[in-house]
Amino acid sequence: MTNSHQIVYLQRGDHRLYGEVIQEIVTRQMLWVRPLLLDIDTQVYDLRQTADIVWPMSLFQPALDTEVIPLLAQLQDFDGKFTPPAIARQQLQIFLHQVWQNQESTAS
User: Fold this and answer.
1) 5 and 12 in contact (C-beta within 8 Å)?
2) Is 2 a domain residue?
3) Dihedral sign, Cα of residue 6, residue 10, residue 13, residue 16
4) Residue 1 lies in a domain
């Protein structure tokens, strides 16, 4: 069982999407997650201005504080050098599409 406000991640290879659980939808085995950041090849994308997602609970793992805190600190250290929100949204869409394709091919 996942708790509200818990930080979880969705992984594809060495890329990870971190998000905050808003609600667990038990009847559908889904999580409503608010994306926080996307970690791709040492590039951290700030996703706090993107839309929430609802994805299968089985794809998420609980994140450890020791891995999330340094990444969140990077968001605070950007000091005005943010990735434009449109690029962050695009990276999120690409990542989610790749994860979904991977799930489809694994299920077949």
Assistant:
1) no
2) no
3) negative
4) no
The rounded distance, in Å, linking the Cα atoms of 106 and 102 is 6
pTM as predicted: 0.88
Asked if 9 and 17 count as a contact pair (C-beta separation under 8 A), the reply is yes
Q: What kind and span of H or E run contains 36?
A: strand 30-40
Q: Quote the CA–CA distance of 61 and 64 in Å, as a whole number.
A: 9
Q: Which structural domain, as residue segments, surrounds residue 63?
A: 7-107
User: Residues 16-58: pLDDT tens digits?
Assistant: 999 999 999 999 999 999 999 999 987 889 998 899 999 999 9
Three-state DSSP at 108 gives coil
Residue 50 lies in a domain: yes
Q: Where are the alpha helices (DSSP H) in the chain?
A: 65-77, 85-107
CA dihedral 41, 82, 8, 92 (to 10 degrees): -70
Number of domains in the chain: 1
- Cα gap 11→3, rounded to integer Å: 19
